[in-house]
Amino acid sequence: MGPVTDSAAAAAMTGPKQARSRVTRRHLLEAAVSCLAEHGWAGSTVSAVAERAGVSRGAAQHHFPTREDLFTAAVEYVAEERSTALRDLFHAGPAARPAVVQALVDLYTGALFRAALQLWVAASNEEQLRPRVTELEARVGRETHRIAVELLGADESVPGVRETVQGLLDMARGLGLANVLTDDAARRARVVAQWSRILDAALG
Predict the structure, then answer these.
(1) Nearest partner of 45 among 23, 27, 25, 68, judged by Cα
(2) pLDDT (tens digit, 9 = 90+) per residue, 47-93?
(3) Nearest Cα to Cα of residue 25 among 3, 54, 68
(4) Which of 135, 145, 160, 162 has its CA 20 to 30 A from that of 52?
(5) b vs e for 191-201, b when ≥16 Cβ sit within 10 Å of the residue's Cβ?
(6) pTM to 2 decimals?
(7) Other C-beta atoms within 10 Å of 37: how many?
């Protein structure tokens, strides 16, 4: 078999292998987020995540050499997925503010926020983890703020508008924190409605 044919055969084999690798990586990231949200940092080991993802510990460590690599990548992955989903909800640009406020609040009341919260707690005690989580949260925060500004049609050149948008995100995070212990859906709905009225008055 000639060199060209050999190269074509190798490429044909590499394609499916890379696809399987991407699937394995995604399964590991999703399993890591679920473990972190359900069991916290102490109960979320690489072995537990590998078992949940249906792969060997060695395969997990091939993709993520350290525990810190795995869990920071997992939260970042899901944050990016949620940001994409949020943009897709409002692909035409600015939307009705109550819907945007509700969508932003929803970002902080699911498994992602629970997983991120566990990472924050762990990072407060783990020197090796802290700078990575700090950088990740800053990046996620900037992206979420940018999306919020875009969806709300907010003009940040107007004094106070930037702070108003950031206040919305801080409020959403607080509602997510309250939801960790109890189902706060009824009160949350009233707060979302009030914040929508506040935004209408502040943003015009």
Answers:
(1) 68
(2) 999 999 999 999 999 999 999 899 888 878 877 877 777 777 777 66
(3) 54
(4) 135
(5) bbeebbebbee
(6) 0.72
(7) 21
